[in-house]
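Field reference: sequence -> structure
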Amino acid sequence: METNDDIKRQHPFSRIGIFNKYTKKKMLKSHATIYSLIFSLILCVIIWITGDSATYYNTLIKLTDVALSLFPNFLGFCIGGYALIIGASNIEVLKKMSKPLPNGSHLSFFQVLSSIFAASLIIQCVTLFFAYILQILVNMQLDAVSNDIGVVTNLFLIFILVFLTSMSILLLYYTVINIFNFGQAVHLTIRIEDRDNQTIEEKAQNNDTERNN
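Structure field:
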């Protein structure tokens, strides 16, 4: 039987709880990470082959503007979905989602759902902050020490920004899936509970009928 200390160890808080071993493994091996990495590499190679130093700089400016215009809306959508899951959950339903999953991680369905949601939000926050810092640096119009250093720096920043942006956008897909899965789990729990209550009522009616007979 689990002790209180065992249960506490299974409920770490802050970044440790969000980026637990299961979540980190799940996200590192996810299609969003793999596809974003491949897309970023291909795009940077194309930009490097077809462009010049001015093209790299202008591309970085445009990508930064796109990220700054998109991600406030993305964050609003994801935070709303996260608040819906955390705040609008029935206690009885949460109790039934609190059992550890049979994957050896000692995490429940609700913990996995919550940690992946929170991790996605943090990645989107990092992307928005990174784009914000780039916008400041671009507006400062800093001169590179040499043209080669400027080219390498711009291409590297383009790669990081495209990777973070692509991954954040693809994580929206998983966000929608997670919201749907949560809704299905809640509906399933309610249906099972209604069926159990109906079975109990039918047994009680049958017992009363037998007594009357």
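Note: The chain has eight helices and no strands.
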